[in-house]
Amino acid sequence: MRRLKHAAASLVAGLAAIALSFGMSSGVAQAQQRTIAIGTGGTGGVYYPIGGGLANLLSKNLPGVQATAEVTGGSVDNLKLIGSGQSEIGFSMADAALDAFKGQDKFKSGKVDVRTLMVLYPNVMHVVTVDGTGINSVADLKGKRVSTGSGGSATEVMAFRVIEAAGLDKDKDMKRERLGVAESVNAIKDRKIDAFFWVGGLPTSAVTDLGATPGVKLKLIDHSDLVAKMNAKYGNLYSENTIKAGVYPGQDKPNKATAVWNILVTSDKMSDKEAYDIVKLMVDKKADLVAVHKEANSFSIENQVKANSPVPWHPGAVKFFTEKGVKM
To answer: Is residue 185 part of a domain?
Structure first.
């Protein structure tokens, strides 16, 4: 009997030791786990699917890393989340990133020590309406119901600059809404707004949805003639671009638009090694991101030049691209 009791006691002690050992090793594993939050945008845009692809890429290939793509208002929100330490990586338009770095416009409450990891693809401004609204130019938005993008988005930043360049007052000359692209599409279908601004990659799924809606004729408004005025005030951030005919259902002619580069950003607190590893992975596994959205085709070595990013580069990214022959 004593032997049985002794054996039972030994078994319990052994199991307890194993459990303690497992708990300790599990705790160590958890302690070593690095969580990376990636600020993207709304679900109807391009940042979100590419951000999801990037999160999957990092989680699968970087030991000890668990990355997640977060739905946000867009560039401005992403930059503020990085500034507050709530996100490690974010997608941003170059103009919004520069504002954050300088502490101006929507960042007057404080600068963000933002650093560029990679230049991504050009974001094209869409000025969208439908037949029957009487809108044929940006000037025709006067007196109309217009969405200028969700609060916290770079769409709003750039929309205000397009409107200003056209000689309109964003507050006095139109009834302004602040909707994301998916919400804007629903609102224009329901005739609750007459037009909306959206800056994003090509094609943007929500705009495709609008063009494919029965009984609706998509209309994109030319505005590339405003680039010079925008650059005169805000620096050479903007360029002329063309949305080719047929990019969207029912789009039967090219749209002369404006564009600004998208960049992937982080803070100055990210280690050089982690920044290097992330950028290397994006280049080496580019095909995985292209499979998620074809705008990832623009993630090229050739686009990694200072002129395409107005904010400082992260040293880890500079190291990687220098090794690839890019003059940083």
So the answer is: yes
